[in-house]
From TrEMBL:
InterPro entries: Ribosomal_L11_MeTrfase_PrmA, SAM-dependent_MTases_sf. The lineage of its organism: Bacteria, Pseudomonadati, Spirochaetota, Spirochaetia, Leptospirales. GO terms for molecular function: protein methyltransferase activity. Keywords: Methyltransferase, Transferase. Signal peptide: none annotated. It comes from Turneriella parva (strain ATCC BAA-1111 / DSM 21527 / NCTC 11395 / H). One of its GO terms (biological process) is methylation. This is Ribosomal L11 methyltransferase.
Length: 305
């Protein structure tokens, strides 16, 4: 396996769970290239960490991480939180990550399998295997927001569907859509590293499943939606990002929700249900449903033709 050879700043913060979304939002807005949250105790795929959570943020080598971290936490009113800053080589980071990241049931029907745990790939009868190296991109499959999306994909995808995934991260949702029978999928992300990781994951799945996946990844944001054909017969629109990003892209989002067969938006903290529902009512063409898991929500709908 070949690894990217970049160097990054890693900021690790031990934070109460109820403040995780707020800290993530602030660090991402401040230029974090990537983030993930350790939801389980080291080396486990069950045993949810109950109260505190470990947040990891990655910044480019030229970012003033040592000065930024204490200032950012003080600005948010969390000056007393413990944090660690280190410089990491991507290759070293990935080797460390491999030790604790193992195959697990992403949902009741989809298994997530990293290539270094192929001998434990058979999670149970009937599971589809989604092969993945998350690397530094968001989309390890451990987060409830991703799991809610994969459950939506399992129930929704039809063989004629084209899937659009904005904020594709590791490529996990677009690849899940292909596994569950979509005709094609297209993912975009603002992070170059995420796009590289998604493309590598597509190739990994093609190799392991012995089939070509009609799935593409590119750098882009909501504005790139207008470069695609979106139709009410076959397009399924997916985005797992944060509420403030949906709100900042309201016009493009409104266009997507009105012109697709089905849609799902994830990444909404339960605490924001009232405000996000009010926002969505101003842009969604009809009624929608909500599901909740571990304080996170997915909003979804099948548009009638
Ligand atoms: C929560 S992660 C979701 C990753 C993956 N799709 C999943 O469901 O696990 C959100 C992703 O959206 C990307 N992102 C943030 N703002 C974006 C924007 N305006 N347009 C496109 N991607 C964006 C981030 O870089 C990140 O990879």
């Amino acid at each position: 396996m070949s690894y990217i050879t970049a160097v990054f700043w890693q900021i690790e913060i031990n934070a109460p769970k109820e403040h995780a979304a707020e800290i993530e939002e602030f660090f991402l807005k401040s230029g974090a290239q990537s983030t993930f949250e350790l939801l389980y105790e080291e080396g486990r795929t069950s045993n949810l960490i109950e109260d505190n959570t470990q947040l990891f943020f990655f910044f480019a080598e030229n970012f003033p991480a040592r000065a930024f971290a204490p200032m950012a936490l003080a600005t948010l009113g969390f000056a007393d939180l413990e944090f660690k800053i280190s410089q990491v080589q991507y290759a070293d980071y990935l080797k460390e990550f491999e030790k604790s990241f193992r195959a697990f049931a992403l949902t009741q029907k989809t298994a997530l399998v990293p290539p270094w745990d192929a001998e434990n790939a058979d999670i149970g009868p009937g599971f589809k295997k989604l092969w993945l190296v998350p690397g530094m991109a968001f989309g390890t499959g451990k987060h409830a927001t991703t799991q809610l999306m994969v459950e939506f994909i399992e129930k929704t995808i039809r063989p004629s569907d084209t899937v659009i995934d904005i904020g594709s991260g590791s490529g996990i949702l677009a690849i899940a859509a292909m596994l569950w029978g979509a005709a094609s999928a297209w993912g975009v992300d603002v992070e170059t590293l995420a796009v590289e990781s998604a493309a590598a994951n597509k190739t990994l799945n093609e190799e392991r499943h012995g089939a070509a996946f009609a799935c593409e990844f590119a750098v882009g944001d909501f504005s790139t939606l207008h470069e695609r054909t979106i139709d009410r017969a076959n397009t399924v629109f997916l985005a797992n990002i944060l509420p403030n990003i949906f709100e900042a892209n309201a016009a493009d989002l409104k266009f997507a929700l009105a012109n697709c067969r089905a849609w799902a938006l994830s990444g909404i903290p339960s605490a924001q249900e009232e405000s996000f529902t009010a926002f969505l009512k101003t842009i969604a063409p009809g009624s929608f449903e909500i599901r909740t898991k571990e304080d996170w929500q997915i909003y979804f709908c099948q548009n009638s033709l």
